[in-house]
Carbon-nitrogen hydrolase family protein (Amycolatopsis carbonis), 275 residues
Amino acid sequence: MSTVRMAAVAAPFDRDVESDFARIEKLIAEARAEGVGLLALPEAALGGYLANLDGDAEGPPALDPAGPEIRRLAELAGDLVVTAGYCERDGDRRYNSAVCVSGDGVLGHHRKVHQPLSEDASYGAGSGFAAFDTPVGRLGMMICYDKAFPESARALALDGAQVVVCMSAWPGSRTNPSADLAEDRWKRRFDLFDRARALENQIVWVSANQSGTFGDLRFVASAKIVDPGGEVLADTGVAEGLAIAEVDVAAALAGARRAMAHLADRRPAAYAVGG
């Protein structure tokens, strides 16, 4: 499928998984009514994020990636492709993970690689990035702080990802926060990373984020769709909502790469220092 109507969610999620599912069910119904084929939910949509970034002893409920919650998410997705973040249980380890599902089951999975501040006290780290095929094209996934590292998106683009979904629980600044969230410096960073990663790799970028507050955190929302030229096609701003845009993915990528193809024009031998 080339033309895809896609939606990125800005919404609050918490420890009550049943309440989270009720919200997800409404969001999927709204997306389906809008003709959406790809719906991106935020990081930690099942069970909420950490209450603070200094070490949350309790943390969200840890879910089995082959368990009933992920199966339920796939059933709700039906004919849509849906991505969502959750806390994954693997033996005695926990990971900040994301899953991509449709009514056919799990299509892709990602464990967050980069961990800010004290997040490593709550989660293990993932080990890489890989794209995968879906009914709406070849996708890549990353979680929140992953997007601060250009290598993350570049690895996915080199693996053929046409669309990258970044799911976040990105808060406003912890120091010198702005009374107006729209002017917050961490919100500006969030937006800058979204546009830069799309433009660097000439890919479609779908950015979902938590909204509202949870524990000590105030999330910047700002869910958006960005085209391969770095232009924002739809944006929720700092409010809860759906950012929806229809993109002819193949044509958008071809157009962006016609004159200056960033991936094709790379000189890998020149980048050896520093890994």
